[in-house]
Design brief:
9 strands, globular, TIM Barrel, single chain, 9-stranded parallel sheet, alpha/beta
Amino acid sequence: MSKPKKRKHHSILIFFFIIIAVFTLYEEFGKEKKPKVAPRITKHDKGAEKVLPKPVKPKVAIIIDDLGPNKNVAKEVLALKAPLTLSILPRQTYSAWIAEEGHRLGHDVIAHIPMEAEKSYKLGEGGLYTWMTDKEIADTLNKDINSIPHALGVSNHMGSAFTRDERSMQTLITELKMKKFFFLDSLTASGSVGFHLAKMNGIKALERDIFLDDNDDPSGIELQWKKLINIANKKGYAVLLAHPGKNTLEFLQIMLQNNNEVTVVPVSALVR
């Protein structure tokens, strides 16, 4: 090949390489300028957008006290659409019927045992007094519990004197431990030793946080409910005691239908 032809051939190759180099630089420059687009995620793709968990609502156990003497009132309580806990007085006319019916409907049942108050209130049949011997306390308690089928635990009805008396409460706690019952301290007065003794003896126990209807007035009941919500939000749970009065049941019926603030649970769910 002659020299002019070789030069021409070399020039063509050089020109060709220059074009390739320019084209490559242009492509790389263009990539940097183009906005980055996130890959499209379909519902079938692994690693699809995470669904945020729903906020966990605090748990509240609502215990309805003083059931037993009145069947119609009990029916109103049982008609409320919520997992309420039925706290039943012993040896009353309808104690066993309410316990059986409540258990059939899936409610927790506890025995609401009358205990000596500081004032001389009449406790009725099945009451526990500080003047009783240990055997009398144990025998009375066992008869009380036997009158309430399906009971899981015990709470105190009144009891501001009894729950402060360490000897009397130790006897009661010992009996509950043998039955594998829990103790719910209604805290009718400060200074109760019930919760402390229960924990010392290795049985499950809870304390009341709020009485819903100390003031049996719609505005008072609403105020107590708001206090309950605050406590539940702080602790993650709360224990509410209420009585089957007209205003209370009307309030609970409305509140439970529109409740978005707490999760109502049986008391056994908190004891666990």
